[in-house]
Amino acid sequence: MANIEILFNKGRKIYENKECLPENFGDVEKFYSEMEEYKPTSLVRLFDLAKKAGIKEICVKNESERFGLNAFKGLGVSYALNCLMAKEKKDSYLFVSCTDGNHGRALAWRSKSLGHKCVIFMPSGSEEERVKAIEEFGAKVIVTDKNYMGAVMEAAKYAEENGGYLVQDTYFEGYDSDVPDNIVLGYSTMVKEAIAQMEEKPTHVFVQAGVGSAAAGVIWYIRKMISEDIITGVIEADCVACIYESIEQGKDVAIDGIPYTVMAGLNCGEANLKIMPLLKDSADCFVKCSDKITYKGMERALNPMGDDECFNSGPSGAVGLGFVEEVLTNEEFEEYRKMLGFDENSVVLVFNTEGRIDTL
Fold first, then answer.
1. Up-side HSE of residue 62: CA atoms within 13 Å toward CB?
2. N or C end of the chain, less CB within 10 A?
3. Which of 48, 52, 61, 73 is the catalytic position?
4. Ramachandran angles phi, psi of 73, nearest 5°
């Protein structure tokens, strides 16, 4: 299998929002403008790498700085909890979720800062470092013997039996909540900030996906608030590329078993079905990458070219950078470069969604 495979979206069109995704980006902006802990993360501009790659600019939105959590997930969680608590007014809450690491840590952090209890379920094979990173915020962590979606079902059962609120970033049958939609909206803040920090708008935006909620937040904001012309791509780990496979096969595809990828934050195997119509209509391509590609991105972040800035990038965070450099510089992918429309005027935006675990 190739280290990179790209599926181009022949059915790309303007998304009509028949699934009623929320469009209240102004409410999200207002919430964060009033949130004491909020401040924009930095944008890393890799001019020397771009020059080597034959394009104008490569920008990396550095989410390893977000809320001191080493990852972007606090954006979705904080906005979703704000909406939930405004709707369900109580003195105390129990928040429950399933995570591969970053989402659970963000929920534990926000629960603690708000003074509420939190229980986190994790799939089989979860790394001890990720468990400890969640527990440091006072949450109870239960590592299951199931894959990601199996652990989600365990979390849902626990919440129901214990009077808790499931705070999940994906929809599934029986989960009747607006929490996933609000998490998607919260994630849109990443690209809103990035575009405000760029000197010109990007020509290409690539964002990684596990269940796809972050990708949806980014692409939804771009299509509604910026432009239909920006080329967008959704990147997945090759062994759990449920979105890629769903688009290619024309049906919802779940990846069974407990596959391994170093990109633990992307190791979900089943997409958020609510956002699939948006991605199907609005993304220009879908990408599968091997672990080798994210290792390449991690190495480039640690050892930049020329005067480019060094930054902290972890396994799930570095795949976008690794993908862009590999496609632009490896002659094996010349046809992909042509199909993506890269040239000397291209301005590429990717997202460093997490830092290295050993920096926690």
1. 18
2. N
3. 73
4. -60, -25
Residues 29 and 270: their CA atoms lie apart, in Å, by 29
Place of tokens 């849109």: 188
Calculate the alpha carbon distances from 110 to 67, 71, 77, 113, 118 in Å. Answer: 10, 14, 7, 5, 9
In the three-class reduction of DSSP (H, G, I as helix; E, B as strand; rest coil), residue 112 is classed as helix
For residues 304 and 291, give the distance between their C-alpha atoms in angstroms, rounded to a whole number.
Answer: 20
> Angle of helix 74-87 relative to helix 213-221, nearest 10 degrees?
90
Three-state secondary structure call for residue 218: helix
Q: How far is residue 171's CA from residue 97's CA, in Å, rounded to a whole number?
A: 12
226: which DSSP letter? I
Task: Tell me if the pTM is above 0.90.
Answer: yes
Task: Based on the residue annotation, tell me whether 73 is a catalytic residue of this protein.
Answer: yes
Find the catalytic residue in 61, 100, 169, 280.
Answer: 100
Q: What is the largest CA-CA distance in the chain?
A: 60
Q: Among 76, 42, 75, which residue's Cα sits nearest to residue 59?
A: 42
Query: What's 71's DSSP letter?
Result: B
pLDDT recorded at residue 359: 53
Q: Is 17 left (phi over 0), alpha (psi -120 to 50) or beta?
A: left
- Checking if the pLDDT of 278 tops 80, the result is yes
291 is an active site residue: no
For the segment 108-130, the average pLDDT, to the nearest whole number, is 94
**Burial category of 162 from C-beta neighbours within 10 Å (exposed 0-12, middle 13-18, buried 19 and up):** exposed
- pLDDT higher at 169 or 299: 299
Check if the beta carbon of residue 78 is closer than 8 Å to that of residue 35.
Answer: yes
Residue found under tokens 């675990």: 357
Decide: helix, strand or coil at residue 314: coil
Region 195-215 average pLDDT: 97
Which residue segments constitute the domains of the chain, with CATH numbers given? Answer: 4-72+181-359 (3.40.50.1100), 74-180 (3.40.50.1100)
